[in-house]
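Practice problem: predict the structure.
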Amino acid sequence: MSAQPMDVNVVSELVADAAAAPSLHNAQPWRFRFLRNSAVLLLHADLERALPRTDPDKRGLHLGCGAALFNLRVAAAAKGLAPVVRLLPAPDDTELLAEVGLRGSTSPGETLARLYPAISLRHSSRFPFRDEQIPAAVVERLCAAAHAEGAQLVFPGAWHLRSILELVQDAEGRQALDPGIRGETTRWTRTEPSDVVGAPDGIPAEAFGPRQHGTTAPVRDFAVGRPMPGRGWASFEKNPNIALLGTARDGVADWLLAGQALERVLLQATVDGLVASMTSQPLEWPELRWVVRDPVSAMAHVQMVLRLGYGPEGPASPRRPVADVLDIA
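Answer:
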């Protein structure tokens, strides 16, 4: 007896949850195609949403798609499904990043399913956090989340943290001098609130956070010198909790794994009451990226710099309608 076809409404819900993932400049560089007969969901890179100057090797694009893939896995588990994932199933099709079979079943109490409520609650927060250390038990859970996806999470010591802050400043200065990068940032970030602009992507003004007095926390300023009336200034935490997410290797498959690990860490952080922001600025310059890594760890390639802590939640960023990202065949 053949299996019942997958409900298209269920597939749409899965894709909506997947698309809640973070991505570079909230460009949402993914497309999904559902094959009814085989109950397979294909994840494609949307290269029209790539950032060729900011992300020339498309590493950031693949991290975002990996994060969307992890959300899909969590959402499927919450519906009692056991997705079977194949990364890069067609070597001759570089835009096809993953194939997800949706025939299997599992208990909704499975480990991934417990992260499901955090998908809708996770938003980047570029606001000041409290100067408060993260308890060791929480740090352990975050590190375990990264490890479960084949990545590593490291919390650098004080001297390395100062170096990272300097590298972030260096990278921000370099980007300010590059008209191509400035243009991409302007293209994907809005200096007006989302309810005024109405764009389904990009970073709205309310998500920028205040300007920072000094540079004590690695928070990207998306204004790029553009005037924003009413945007204030604030002092950020003096001792930020910074973590480096990295992998042993640095190929396309590793970027997809890192994206899944990144989202697993962010969802676990949300469950544990933390808020987070991310910066990849120093990682976008090869000569700086190497210096960011922790020389006393086994991490060979840093994929993301995370800032974690306790503070105000960030606002939700806009999302494209499911109909724009899902094709059903």
